[in-house]
Structures are given as C-alpha cells and as structure tokens.
Amino acid sequence: MPTVNTPPEDTPAPVAAPGAPAAHPRGQRVVVVGGGPGGYEAALVARRLGAHVTVVERHGVGGAAVLTDVVPSKTLIATAEWLTTAEQGPELGIRSEALVSSETGLEPGVDPAARSSRARRDLVDLKAVNARVLALAEAQSADIRARLEREGVEVLTGRGRLDGPSRVVVEQESGTVTRDADTILLATGATPRTLPTAVPDGERILTWTQLYRLTELPEKLIVVGSGVTGAEFAGAYHALGSDVVLVSSRDRVLPGEDMDAAELLEGVFRSRGMTVMSRSRAASAERTADGVAVTLSDGRVVTGSHVLIAVGGIPSTAGLGLEEAGVRLTESGHVAVDKVSRTSVRGIYAAGDCTGMLPLASVAAMQGRIAMSHALGDAVAPLRLKQVAANIFTAPEIATVGYSEARLREQGSRYVTTMLPLARNPRAKMLGMRDGFVKLFAHPEAGVVLGGVVVAPRASELVFPITLAVAHRLTVDDVADAFTVYPSLSGSVAEAARVLHGQVR
C-alpha cells in the first residue's frame, strides 16, 4: 500500500503489439487468476476483444481492494472525516450540541484534545460503522460480479494455480476443474506483512484486514508503521475518538512522500493530540491482561488496548506454480513484468500488487487493461507511471502526480517550483481550511509541468488538472491561462502556474 511516485523515463507512443495475435481474435481463451481491479478490468477488455474469459477468485470478485482494503478503508475514513469536519462548526458559528454536552461532563483542567477525543468517542457506534463498511464492500463486489456475468465472463470461486504455461487448475469446494488458456493473467494481489514477534490474533493484535471485526472503538490504538496505511488508519481512528500512538521507525511519517507534505501532516497529527513516536522501531507486540504491550527496539514499552501492524504487504505468489511454469520472480517474490505486463513466459501476463509496481488499484487496473490489449492484438501504450495520480486519504489528503521533488533532485534534473499555502485561497477561508498547499514543478526553460503535490481536503479531486497537465505535457502558461471559478480551491492551481510563469525563461 505505500506509494512513491518514482516514474521511469518516458515511454514511446502507442504501438501495435509485437508478436501478438491478429487484432480482435475470436475464440482466444483467457484465464485471469485473481478478481481484483487488475483482474476484472482485464476480463472486461478481453471480452470486448472477443475472447472467451474465465476469472478465478478465492474470496470474492473485487478481491482485497474491494472486500478488505481500498473500499472498506476509504469508507471508514469518510465516516471519520465527517467528525473532523463537524468539529469546525464552532469556528464557523455553528453550535454542535452533541459535542458540547459531551464535553461538559469532563473535569476542569482536562487537555482540550482529550475533551475532543472523548466527545467524538461518545458519538461513534463502531459496530454500526463497520457493518455499513462491510455492507458497502459486499455490494460493490456483487455489482462487479454481475457486470462480469452480463458481459459473458465465466466466474469461478476457488484457488487457481498454474499447471504449466497454458493451463490453470482451480481448486473449488466441489472439486477441481481445469481451464486451458491461450493467455493467462496473474492478478493475485498481496497480503499484509506481519512480524514473527507480533502475530495477529484478530482481537487485539490486528492487520488492516481485521479492523472491521471490531465492535467497540479502541480506547488506545498503537499503530506500528507510518507509511500510507499506518497514517491513514491512525488519522481515521483518532478522528473517531481513539487515543492513537503512531510508531514510526523513520524520522517522520510518510517517509516516501513529499517532505513538505509529510511534515505538514505530522504537525497536524500532533496538534490534534496524536502521539507520534519518530525513530522508534517496534520489536514485538503481545497480549496483556487487558490490552497489548508493544516493545520497541530500544527497550521502551508502549501499552494500549489494541495494536495495528501496518508494515507493508507481501505479494501473493507462493504456491501458484509460477516457478515451475518458468515465470521469473524478483528477490522480493513479485512477478517480474515489463511495461506491457508481460512476464518471462510467452502468453503469461501479470498485473497489480503481485508485480511490485505502484500498489494502487488504478495502476493494477491499467496493467490489466494493457495486458489484454497487448495479448489480443489491440493498439496499446506501455505503462507510464509518471502519469499516475496517487492519493493518501488522511485529513488533509495528500495527492501527487508526475515527478517528485526528490526524484528530480536525485536524477539531477533542472526545475523550478512554487508552493502556495491553501490558507490564502478565498474559498478555503470560507470553508475554514487552514492546513494545506499546492506545489508545482516545471521545466525552467520549456515551462512544461513536470509534477505537483496538493495537500488539502479532497486533494484527490483537486489534483486532476495537474494530472492533465502532466499527461499532455502542458506548460505553466497553459494552466495559468485557463479559466477557474471564483472562488474555488482549483484557483490555487492556476495561481501557482502564474507564479511559475515568472520563473520560466
């Protein structure tokens, strides 16, 4: 789940697939192992190109992205965001009786952050929250399955594995079936990484897939790992009313993201009362009589009611018969692929988190679509990671696209940059937004937009004009000269471009 925008060099324009079958072949047999975004998007493309398609999925169509990862986590975060927004009511002149009445019962001298946390906790029915989260995930899974079946895709529930380079064995509850294939796509995803000294039990020691089983809000949640997953859940549970301790082995949260954005978010976390323990590596976690104890590598012990282990993921590639079929794996266990999703074996492709590319649902879907277009002879453009927009769903959100500042410096690229605080934006002032900024990078002579960072509520929406600029090689003048609504948050994107106009020679 961590995202680092480190794009490769530009790739060529769309070309016909070299060595692929003739365009739009009828009767080609495609088997997709894994029903997540990479798998089901690939299946839809293959059907449109006339192939006979089978999707094999163990747990449910949509995969982890829909059932245990992206959809449920972002639904939970959206619920928490409602409380964060509601807290701004008094600043805007709106009195929240529920929050006020909860605070009046606290004794004098209690820290304001603790008052706020207690007030939010009294408002949250976590059992109902998680029931809604899981219901939405199941509904989305059912919608995707229905779409596949309407398109004529065969969906098999079971565990798929390769039996050589052109056959898939599917182990179902009712028995084993096989499907021969002209093309196979591996889209098996990844699972949460755990620590041998912190084995999840689903009750007190948890992975992010197990959080939705909780029926009561953790009184004190220790989050081990300050990457994207750790930061998102730490922010969400703190907003819901949990006392949160974020344990980071690095010197700041989100070590792979834009430094200014990460520092701003950490400051927001601390100002809201979250405890952030930097340069603190967790060595173990164990159950206690009434909670958990997390021992750090320096001997310190942090106690709490629950602990979330958020230290990344591992590719789901073991036991699939990949090496026996000749599919090359990397040292980390990911399937090695090129920019059109080909593996080392002709006719076998791979997409998504099992490949080690950016672990984003959007990237998995694009890889799957590219794979099928290439395999079935349609025109295809190789994957271009510099056009990928990524978002971290904290409060405020952090959205990035194109080249990061760290990458530009690392490769010695010349660039100009500007950063405009969101607090200057009139629309942001009206909405009570203070924390955030818009940052752009551009070529110092050509003026082409190289990348950007947006830190703001709904940054995932606000980054889109920058994504268009990067994808179509627009200049800062192109962006600056486009009309924006007044007042609007997107006005800050145009204003940043106007500032850069003066720096471009």
From TrEMBL:
SUPFAM superfamilies: FAD/NAD(P)-binding domain (SSF51905), FAD/NAD-linked reductases, dimerisation (C-terminal) domain (SSF55424). The keyword Flavoprotein applies. It comes from the Bacteria. It holds the Pfam family Pyr_redox_dim. InterPro entries: FAD/NAD-bd_sf, FAD/NAD-binding_dom, FAD/NAD-linked_Rdtase_dimer_sf, Pyr_nuc-diS_OxRdtase, Pyr_nucl-diS_OxRdtase_dimer. Residues 12-24 have a biased composition (Low complexity). Residues 1-24 are annotated as: Disordered. Residues 389-496 form the Pyridine nucleotide-disulphide oxidoreductase dimerisation domain. Its cofactor is FAD. Keywords: FAD, Flavoprotein. Residues 29-368 form the FAD/NAD(P)-binding domain. Belongs to the class-I pyridine nucleotide-disulfide oxidoreductase family. This is NAD(P)H-quinone dehydrogenase.
